[in-house]
Amino acid sequence: MDSLKPHLPKISNEDRTPLIDVLLELLAWQQKQIDRLEQEILKLKGETTKPKIKSSKMDKDSAENGDAENNCRI
Question: Do residues 52 and 46 make contact, with C-beta atoms less than 8 angstroms apart?
Fold first, then answer.
C-alpha cells in the first residue's frame, strides 16, 4: 500500500478527447473507491484514524465524591 502513485502528465485541451475524459473520470472514481476501501479495512482492523477523546474529569470527581460519602456512613 506504500507504493508511489504514478504522476499523470498535464494533458492540453487540444490533446483531450472524449475517451481521455472518460478515462480520467474512471481514474478519479477508482481512487475514491480505493480510499473508501482502505478506510473500511482500517475500521475492521480497529485501526481507525479518528482522534482519541480523553475521558471526562467529571467521572473522576463524582467517583471521588461517592467514595467520600461511603466512608462517612457508619
Answer: no
Tracing cell 460519602 back to the chain, one arrives at: 69
| Identity of the residue numbered 36 | R
* Predicted local distance difference test score (pLDDT) of residue 25: 95
| Helix, strand counts (H, E) of the chain | 2, 0
For the record, the C-alpha cell of 27 comes out as 481514474
| Segment 17-40, tens digit of pLDDT | 999 999 999 999 999 999 999 999
What the block records as the C-alpha cell of 46 is 480497529
Task: Round to whole Å and give the CA distance between 43 and 36.
Answer: 11
Overall pTM surpassing 0.85 (yes/no): no
Cβ proximity of 11 and 20 under 8 Å: yes
pLDDT in the model for residue 27 = 93
What single letter denotes the amino acid at residue 4? L
Q: Where are the domains of the chain?
A: 18-72
